[in-house]
Design brief:
Blueprint: H1 2-63, E1 65-71, H2 75-82, H3 84-90, E2 95-102, H4 105-113, E3 119-123, H5 124-132, E4 137-143, E5 152-156, E6 172-175, H6 180-191, E7 200-203, H7 206-214, E8 220-224, H8 227-235, E9 238-239, E10 250-255, H9 256-261, H10 263-282, H11 284-295, H12 299-309, E11 314-315, H13 319-334, H14 344-347
């Protein structure tokens, strides 16, 4: 009996001891697990905060870059040569990148549409045409038309018998489709009461239209500067029009997403371009020198281009500008040059700059 009790008591103590050990072990496992869970939570929070900072940094870096696309002969490449725009924007922590040169507005607008540039200078006709075609573009700033400007013309060869617009009946005229050249030709024909069906429009880019005129493939060419001065002074071409019957606006076109996502940088760039223009208006000789370097033309050609183009003054559009551009857009629709109506008010970039002034 005694031996039984001793054996039983020993087994009981062993069980008690085992239970105590299990409890202690369980306690430490729970403690370790708790510690690991807490550390994991801290690490997750830290990683999340780090990812957030990285994303914010990348977004900030993206928003601090503005890409300027340009054609030959415009204010943007001159601003690039001058360098003041970059110096001014870098003080605002905005980096400038350049894209170009493009031979005409159509290719420049294609670059904007393809997210390879954020801002580019074009005429109002191709700009409105691009917007009507559904390209994600908006109107940033405008250069108001000058009735006496000689920056657009219909040209013929020097030995051509064509002397006036009525002589174009039955002839071939090179124009850029949906652009300033086609608009000029149609407005001249309208003013002269000539049916547009009586003149054949040949759609060519400037680079193709120039040799077509010189070689006699077309009879005339509706075009703009700097092509006018090059054709007149270097190829003995002759203009049969002087002033434009419906002077056009210059437009700084902006990629819509850039205006929405990066309005501060876009507005800063447009403002700096306007200031570059005002500086050039006061330093016309410098403007000509810039053109010599950019276009690789003679000083005589550069001076005539500068004179014909007149002042480079870009401003944010007001209600009067919008009304005039709307009239142009509606005319383009009537002529079936664009496929749908463009509401100019909604086409102005959302930069909070429109005001009556």
């Amino acid at each position: 009996m005694v031996n039984y009790l001793k054996e039983h008591c020993f087994q009981y103590k062993q069980k008690c001891s085992d239970s105590k050990n299990i409890a202690i072990t369980t306690f430490f496992i729970a403690l370790i697990a708790s510690g690991c869970g807490q550390q994991t939570a801290i690490n997750v929070a830290a990683n999340s905060d780090s990812s957030s900072k990285t994303l914010t940094t990348k977004t900030t870096e993206k928003n601090n870059v503005i890409r300027l696309g340009y054609q030959k002969g415009g204010i943007i490449p001159i601003a690039r040569q001058r360098g003041e725009l970059e110096r001014q924007l870098v003080t605002q922590n905005i980096k400038v990148e350049w894209s170009g040169p493009f031979d005409r507005c159509a290719t420049l607008l294609s670059s904007l549409n393809g997210n390879r540039a954020d801002i580019g200078g074009c005429g109002d006709i191709p700009s409105i045409s691009g917007i009507a075609a559904g390209q994600p573009l908006c109107i940033g700033s405008v250069q108001r038309p000058s009735p006496d400007s000689l920056s657009s013309a219909i040209l013929v060869r020097g030995d051509s018998p064509i002397r006036k617009p009525t002589d174009l009946i039955g002839k071939k005229v090179a124009v850029n489709q949906g652009g300033a050249g086609e608009y000029l030709l149609l407005k001249v024909l309208e003013k002269e009461n000539i049916s547009k069906e009586k003149v054949q429009r040949v759609y060519l880019s400037p680079n193709d239209a120039a040799p077509a005129l010189y070689q006699g493939s077309v009879d005339a060419w509706a075009v703009w500067e700097p092509y006018i001065s090059i054709a007149e002074l270097e190829h003995k071409a002759r203009r049969i029009t002087t002033t434009h019957p419906a002077p056009t606006y210059g437009i700084m076109v902006v990629r819509t997403d850039a205006a929405k996502e990066n309005p501060v940088a876009v507005k800063a760039a447009l403002t700096a371009l306007s200031e570059d223009g005002e500086w050039l208006n006061q330093h016309t000789n410098a403007a000509s020198d810039f053109l010599v370097k950019q276009l690789k033309v003679s000083d005589v050609v550069a001076k005539q281009v500068t004179k014909n183009r007149g002042p480079e003054s870009y401003v944010f559009p007001n209600t009067e500008d919008i009304a005039k551009l709307q009239k142009t857009a509606d005319w383009l629709l009537e002529q079936k040059i664009i496929p749908q109506r463009v509401d100019i008010t909604t086409a102005v970039c959302p930069l909070k700059t429109t005001a009556v002034r």
